[in-house]
Design brief:
It is a peripheral membrane protein. This protein is α+β, with helices and mostly antiparallel strands.
Length: about 325
């Protein structure tokens, strides 16, 4: 038997089945030992791990924030975009899930092979078009009768939107996306095999009073060369490029010209609030350091040197005596 704890009703049912002859103890043992089979659909081959899907989610959450800023500036209205889901499904299932008439922007992303599809719900597309043409953003949803002017306006809007994808993908790949074509009927898309695995990132978008979905379909063939870059280990690494010698020289010059506050600490003392209230001109405060003890020089609030006070050309000054041990360590903290 398995290690699960049976309820009293389950125990009574088993004893009843054995006593009536409906089931023998050997049959129960044999049934328990039978290996449980997990159904696997080869048409829905999972090409990406959960870790890689999480990385894609993080990337496109950043893309959603960039798109929000971009569309808000272009449409001059309140825009809200967020990632609704990230799934890996067969390409055929993606085609069946979108409307028969919708706006399909097909992008190429060199140097990666293959195309990326941005599917924009008709409500969203026409709401954007209304805003661009000076309207209030109301949507008719009829995208099958787009004029040449409407197509040209939307093409320019979405073509520039993929500059944000370049920025969002910067940590995993250096791509140069551009719009290859625009389509309205998904049945005309014959990019890849129907059973090819694709990653579909769905965004919820709100434009004023209108709302809808934007789906980005990325075939496995596009992501395959950069799949190792989607691991947590790669994601957590810092990908900062080393500065060139020229950049290093400029950086060093700027650092040398940076201002730092330097304070000569004469000492410290304490007094009560009552004494503070009655302080008058000429009162003397006693410090905790001797008159001939070296002063502490603090740089940006960190003790760095010891020094002795003096004068230089009728100005108060200090002369450095020694470097405080541990000053650099405190700075690192």
């Amino acid at each position: 038997m398995s290690g699960d704890i049976l309820s009293q009703n389950e125990i009574d049912a088993l004893l009843s089945a054995i006593s009536t002859g409906e089931m023998t103890a050997d049959e129960i043992k044999k049934e328990d030992e039978t290996k449980k089979v997990k159904v696997y659909d080869f048409k829905r081959a999972l090409r990406f791990s959960k870790d890689q899907i999480r990385s894609l989610t993080r990337i496109h959450e950043n893309f959603a924030r960039l798109l929000t800023t971009y569309f808000s500036a272009k449409l001059r209205t309140y825009i809200q975009i967020n990632v609704a889901s990230v799934d890996q499904i067969p390409f055929e299932e993606f085609i069946r899930s979108i409307p028969n008439m919708t706006l399909l922007n097909i992008f190429e992303v060199p140097p990666l092979e293959g195309n990326i599809i941005m599917e924009v719900n008709p409500n969203v597309a026409y709401s954007m078009l209304e805003r661009l043409m000076g309207g209030y953003g109301e949507s008719s949803g009829k995208i099958d009768n787009m004029t040449e002017i409407e197509t040209k306006i939307l093409t320019g809007l979405f073509e520039r939107s993929f500059d944000n994808l370049r920025e969002a993908w910067a940590n995993i790949a250096d791509i140069d996306p551009f719009l290859a074509e625009m389509e309205v009927n998904p049945q005309f898309l014959q990019m890849i095999s129907p059973n090819e695995t694709v990653v579909v990132i769905s965004f919820n978008i709100v434009i004023g009073e209108s709302s809808g979905m934007i789906n980005i379909c990325i075939p496995h063939v596009v992501l395959e060369p950069i799949v190792p870059n989607l691991s947590v280990r790669y994601w957590m690494q810092t990908n900062k490029k080393e500065p060139t010698p020229e950049q290093s020289v400029v950086l060093e010059k700027r650092i040398k010209k940076a201002d730092l506050p330097v304070v000569a600490n004469l000492g410290e003392g304490s007094l009560t609030v009552e004494d503070l209230l009655y302080l008058q001109l000429g009162d003397v405060l006693q410090l905790d350091t001797a008159y001939d003890a070296p002063l502490t020089i603090e740089v940006s609030g960190i003790p760095k040197f010891t020094a002795q006070p003096g004068h230089l050309r009728n100005h108060m000054a200090v002369q450095i005596l020694d470097t405080l041990i541990g000053g650099d360590d405190e700075d690192d903290e």
